[in-house]
Amino acid sequence: MTVPLVQRLPTARGRLRADAVLAKTSWFRVGGPAEVLFSPADVDDLTGFLAALDPGIPVTVVGRASNVLIRDGGVPGVVIRLGRAFAGARVNGAVVEAGAATASADVARAAQAAGIAGFGFLEGIPGSVGGALRMNAGCHGKEVRHIVVAARAVDRSGCVHDLRATDLGLEYRRCAVPADWVFVSAQFAGAAGDPAVIAACMRQFRDQRERTQPVRVATGGSTFRNPPNQKAWVLIERAGCRGLRRNGASVSEKHANFLVNDGTASAADLEALGEDVRHRVQTETGILLEWEIHRIGRPLGGPHP
Question: What is d(CA 281, CA 99) in angstroms, rounded to the nearest whole number?
């Protein structure tokens, strides 16, 4: 008889859960379970666990799953999701230090309250600091790489790395840090500003997002990266994909670079719809769109991709 993975893992002070439901925390509201979900108690718990973990066991890191599509067959190995011990923002002069589980919008609000300008765009970034670093998240012409000065991460063997901004290798929606490293905190720097002016700017960002994006439905953020000197949503519209459906999945009528789950879609429906959009755009324009959404796990009943 095969021993369940959870019984073969190192001990930890944090929580280890077998067959943990992930769909409820995914913005798409789809996906199979984590074989084991680990929520470490603190950094020491995380480093000790990873140091003792069999190197052959896969590790996947998820945050708020705002830009992630979890496949229906679930995620094999250990899924690490940081909790409250890794949340919170502290201001020191013009620098904001935040735990990786801190919501990006909370970082923006902490900076605004302290009169630090340059963080307002984070108000429109769903997800947490760890994901924002991993994606070099951005909007309104500004990205995380413009404000990050340092980050701390734990590698697959449990070693802690203090990284400078240049070590992160941040480019458009890309980060050079290995995917199985776990960001635990980061430092961001801005400049002195008027809290009232910053707050007004953040309201504008928030209102624009409400007007132009499907924020009140089950979605996953921008589906595809913008090709050089192009807008993905324009190409998708040109290919006639606005409103395109596959079972309970559809291309948003409000913003064509968003996929939407009407409540009945599976992850397979959403991924297949995305691939259909890519095919149609390539046929129409000659441009093959790249997924911006991270697809993790395995299809239902299928091998790990």
Answer: 39
Show Cβ contacts of residue 265 under 8 Å, excluding neighbours closer than 6 positions: 28, 30, 246, 247, 248, 249
H/E stretch holding 197: helix 195-212
CA gap 223, 271 in Å, rounded = 10
CATH 3.30.465.10 boundaries in the chain: 86-211
The pLDDT score that the predictor gives to residue 305 is 41
Q: For 211-245, what is each residue's pLDDT tens digit?
A: 889 988 999 989 999 999 999 999 999 999 999 99
The catalytic site residues sit at 173, 222, 292
For 226-289, CATH gives: 3.90.78.10
CATH architecture classification, 86-211: 2-Layer Sandwich (3.30)
- What count of residues does the chain have? 305
In this predicted structure, what is the pLDDT of residue 262? 96
Instruction: State what percent of residues in the chain have pLDDT above 90.
Output: 89
Average pLDDT, the chain: 95
- Measured between alpha carbons, how far is 244 from 134 in angstroms, rounded to an integer? 30
The residues, any chain, with a CB within 8 Å of residue 86's CB and separated by 6 or more, are: 43, 99, 100, 101, 102, 184, 185
Which part of the chain is CATH 3.30.43.10?
5-84
* Tokens representing residue 72 in the block: 């229906």
Residues 186-200 have a mean pLDDT of 96
Neighbour-count burial for 22-47, b at 16+ CB within 10 Å, e otherwise: bbebbbbbbbbbbbbbbbbeebebbb
Cα–Cα nearest to 108, from 129, 81, 87: 129
